[in-house]
Amino acid sequence: MISPKYGPILFSAILSGLMSLLVSGISTYRALGLADGFLSDWAGAWLAAWPVAFPVVVLVAPLARKVVQSLVAAD
Questions:
Q1: Cα separations (Å) of 29 from 19, 65, 71?
Q2: 19, 50, 57, 64: which one has the fewest Cβ atoms less than 10 Å from its Cβ?
Q3: Which residues contact 25 (CB under 8 A, 6 or more apart)?
Q4: Burial class of residue 57 (count of CB atoms within 10 Å of its CB; 0-12, 13-18, 19+)
Q5: What pLDDT, on the 0 to 100 scale, is given for residue 73?
Q6: Is 42:28 a contact under the CB 8 Å cutoff?
């Protein structure tokens, strides 16, 4: 099992991977449609997007948490 101290990094990896997969799929579909090689083009777009998305999520997540905390009423 993975140590809890790596939880935020693991969360960032999973979130950025899923979101970049979804967004690159939609973008690839909008650009090319379901043409031959769609899955290959989608995979290429995703592999280019994830290395950008991961560090962005790592850097932006603390700011997003602070914004959410300021918008949510305290108990």
A1: 15, 32, 35
A2: 64
A3: 42, 46
A4: buried
A5: 85
A6: yes
Crossing angle of helices 38-71 and 7-32, rounded to 10°: 130
Q: What whole-number distance in Å separates Cα of residue 51 and Cα of residue 16?
A: 9
pLDDT tens, residue by residue, 8-58: 999 999 999 999 999 999 999 999 999 999 999 999 999 999 999 999 999
Closest C-alpha among 44, 49, 41 to residue 23: 49
Tokens of 64: 């997003």
Instruction: Give the helix ranges, DSSP H, for the chain.
Output: 7-32, 38-71
On whether the CB atoms of residues 45 and 28 are closer than 8 A, the answer is: yes
